Amino acid sequence: MTGRWLVAPLAMIVALVIAPPVADACRCRPPAPAKAAAGADVVFVGTVTAVDAPAVGRGVVGTVAVDRVWKGQVGTTVSIHDSPTSCGRGLTAGERLIVMARRDGDRLTVRQCDGTQRATAKVERLLTRRLGAPRAPS
What we know:
The protein is built from 3 helices and 6 strands; from the N terminus they run H-H-E-E-E-E-E-E-H. It has helices at residues 2-18, 33-39, 121-131; strands at 42-55, 59-71, 77-82, 96-104, 107-110, 117-118.
């Protein structure tokens, strides 16, 4: 009789120990800046000046004042669309970013795992070595 009472708790412990962890498709190791830049349609540095609250299922839209551009064509002020999924990067007004975005029709979209990151002198130097000197936005 005692054996039956031990089987159920032991089975639960075994199931918990060997159960696979919950998947989080959005956890990623940030790609190397050069690799991320190669996969992006536009690469630029700028400051987020405003963040609009998302409409349901639309994601956050940030307005960015563009300082310099390494790749692609962008104006002095652009809107970037954060992914509406849980894979969004998250945007904060006042944050200075190196944006590595993809064109989705007439929109620029950033995602957590695509390489957009806080601007640092180190990454800016690396991008300049890989992509050439940045230019002013058009």
